[in-house]
Design goal:
heterodimer; A: 386 residues; alpha/beta; Transcription Regulator spoIIAA; four-stranded mixed β-sheet; 4 strands; B: four-stranded antiparallel β-sheet; 10 helices; binds adenosine-5'-triphosphate; binds magnesium ion; membrane (chain A)
């Protein structure tokens, strides 16, 4: 049995791999034949029960004279044999195998290790509900304390002793404001135009077309522009904040801040939240104007009213308090979106996939939250008679 | 070394992620002025141990005593105050990516000192100069190589002249010359600033030159299996896992190293 027998030229070249087991006086001999090069099917499997019963202390040997070339499929097979031999308390003699195969085999552990257990939650439904409730309460606590820290940071910033860098704030303000103008314009213009179009069709039936100015003005100032702008910003800026912070998390940048003792709330969260809270109300006001303009364009083409008349009628019909209401709402929307996005980012895991998950989650929470908040505002306004 | 003051004393520490125990019964004393090596195969929990000492991961059992106080029993403010004495170099540098290298080093100085901007600039140049990175002062982290990031991270770690420095694999990914310079720098920091250093490293030559105490963590039993300086462990220790680690340049990879690597 020479080690290089596998290269002998006499064997057929394309012979398919095969193996057989025989009991011998000294133990078991495994004969291996053929070309074990393609990663093909069954030959790689060595059934655990394929070894004939043998006495402990006997040896498993190989006859590899018929082996004609091999790759990792062969090693996989022999590794299986080795483990089966271990279980049958046969000692394993691989001397007859090609030398390089022996070396590869020596690298592999004798026993298959159980893969490190992934954390799984196997709990009853009650425990699940209880856990979820506790988590929610805890989360509310965490977010509140974050919000508190951000407010503290803001107070410090006003006093002039802040960890926030002005540059970061300006960059964030630019991203949350001027660079969002285009999309805010497009969306609000279209919404205003659609409102006017649908409104005109209906109002025409009652010969009350002139009230389209009130419809568009009040709807956009009070509700639509505030919500639309908030949804746009939740998708645009909220998602970006969450992605940015969770990337910093994966990169250990957040850890580095924490270890250095730089307050996260003041340094990372404050500029993000402040910039959105500052810019959103202005975006809202701007969006309202654009929506009214959208309504104006449609109305001009569909009804008989002078341009000046349209604007006069709008300002006559839409009370300033409607704007104030929308303005205050958009402040809250901004605070909510930014805080939720930052929290989601900070909570994210460390892998690349986690960044995507965090961004998605921030957007979803932002949009759903904004609509829920809006409902709360509607109830309050109704109760207060605004 | 035993006559010297103990800065940090780790007692029966257990570190775990959920139900998975990474290390347990970890105990050692960090003496003032020493260079302490944390050794062990890949994935055995060296970085995790470091993270729990610097306050990023709460241990599940045991104490870390810093100057007589149980670190993890303190409130956040007190822990932050203790952390002011620490400088940490993370395994991949962990530079703040929105800032230039210079701003990275300057930020802790701006936060925690009342220095004037030009004094800060001088200090930043000095720290970057020490690690051979002065030329990169205006570059952003994504514009520099992995080894440079690490050196910049080192400059940032020493910005506030910390008492205790924690290095996670400082020389991995550096060329031999820079790596040797780094060893010199670490020794100089110890002697010049009187700093105490905890270092995680696989670089045996470095460890032999600089470390004077250490602990060897085992990935299979999840416990420390040897204490002592790398030199002592190399010369006297007979535990197979330790000798395999210490003499690995002369031997083929052993089973233990294999097992440890599977956890990576
Ligand atoms: N966030 C985590 N969640 C779960 N397990 C983790 C987490 N981080 C690390 N681990 C596990 O903890 C163990 C130790 O990891 P650690 O990073 O401390 O190893 P290390 O000794 O520093 O290795 P290396 O030399 O490769 O850096 C690993 O087995 C790893 O699987
Ligand atoms: Mg590590």
């Amino acid at each position: 049995m020479t080690q290089n027998s596998s290269t002998s030229l006499s064997t057929k070249t394309a012979s398919s791999p095969s193996w057989s087991v025989e009991s011998t006086a000294a133990g078991v001999c495994l004969t291996i034949k053929g070309k074990w090069t393609a990663l093909t099917g069954e030959a790689m499997l060595f059934p655990q029960d394929a070894l004939p019963p043998a006495k402990a202390g006997q040896t498993l040997t190989f006859d590899a004279n018929g082996l004609d070339g091999w790759d990792s499929s062969f090693i996989t097979f022999v590794w299986n044999v080795k483990r089966a031999a271990g279980q049958a308390s046969l000692s394993f003699d691989s001397q007859a195998l090609p030398a390089s195969a022996q070396r590869l085999l020596a690298l592999l552990p004798e026993k298959t290790e159980k893969p490190a257990p992934h954390q799984e939650n196997k709990e009853g439904i009650l425990a699940h509900i209880g856990g979820a409730t506790l988590n929610t309460l805890q989360e509310i606590g965490t977010v509140s304390s974050l919000a508190l820290q951000v407010v503290k940071g803001a107070v410090q910033a006003v006093r002039g002793k802040s960890s926030m860098r002005l540059k970061d704030l300006l960059v964030d303000i630019w991203n949350a404001g001027p660079s969002a103008l285009l999309i805010v314009s497009v969306v609000n213009f279209l919404v205003g135009a659609i409102l006017a179009f649908v409104g005109l069709l209906e109002l025409r039936k009652f010969a009350a077309e002139i009230y389209v100015t009130n419809l568009v003005g009040i709807a956009s100032a009070r509700e639509i522009s505030a919500i639309m702008t908030a949804i746009i910003m939740a998708g645009r800026t909220g998602g970006a904040y969450a992605a940015r912070i969770s990337t910093m998390q994966g990169n250990e940048e957040i850890d580095a801040l924490q270890v250095t003792g730089i307050p996260l709330a003041g340094y990372i969260l404050l500029p993000s939240i402040l910039s959105l809270v500052i810019m959103m109300p202005f975006l809202y006001l701007y969006g309202t104007m654009v929506a009214i303009f959208g309504g104006f364009v449609v109305s001009m083409s569909m009804m008989d009213l002078s341009p000046i008349g349209y604007w006069l009628s709008t300002f006559d019909g839409v009370d300033l308090s409607q704007f104030a209401f929308g303005f205050v709402k958009s402040l809250f929307f901004a605070g909510f979106i930014a805080l939720a996005a930052c929290r989601v980012g900070l909570k994210a895991g460390r892998s690349a996939a986690d960044v995507g998950i965090a961004a998605t989650r921030a957007v979803v929470i932002g949009i759903v939250g904004v609509i829920a908040l809006d409902a709360v505002f509607a109830i309050i306004a109704n109760a207060a008679g605004i | 070394m035993s006559d010297q003051e103990t800065l940090i004393s780790v007692r029966d520490l257990q570190l775990s992620f959920g139900p998975k125990i990474i290390q347990q019964k970890v105990s050692f004393d960090l003496k003032k002025g020493s260079i302490f090596a944390v050794m062990g195969g890949s994935g055995c929990g060296k970085s995790t141990l470091l993270r729990s000492i610097v306050g990023l991961l709460r241990p599940t059992e045991g104490q870390i005593m810093v100057g007589g106080d149980d670190y993890w029993a303190q409130d956040d403010a007190r822990r932050t105050a203790i952390n002011r004495r620490y400088g940490v170099l993370f395994q991949n540098g962990a530079l703040w990516s929105s800032m230039t290298v210079g701003e990275n080093v300057a930020l802790p100085l701006e936060m925690f000192t009342d220095l004037k901007p030009d004094a800060i600039e001088q200090l930043v140049r000095l720290k970057l100069g020490l690690v051979g990175m002065e030329h990169a002062i205006d570059l952003f982290p994504f514009e520099i190589s992995g080894g440079m990031r690490k050196r910049a991270g080192l400059a940032r770690a020493i910005a506030l002249e910390p008492d205790i420095l924690f290095f996670d694999e400082p020389s991995a990914g550096l060329d031999p010359i820079t790596s040797a310079r780094l060893d010199d720098l670490i020794l100089t920091l110890r002697d010049g600033l009187g700093a105490t250093i905890v270092i995680v490293s696989h670089e045996l030559p470095s460890l032999f030159t600089i470390a004077d105490d250490g602990i060897f963590l085992d990935a299979v039993t999840h416990r420390p299996i040897a204490h002592g300086s790398p030199r002592e462990l190399h010369d006297n220790c007979t535990i197979p896992e330790v000798t395999a680690f210490m003499h690995r340049s002369a031997s083929i990879p052993s089973q233990t190293e294999q097992k440890a690597e599977q956890h990576v």
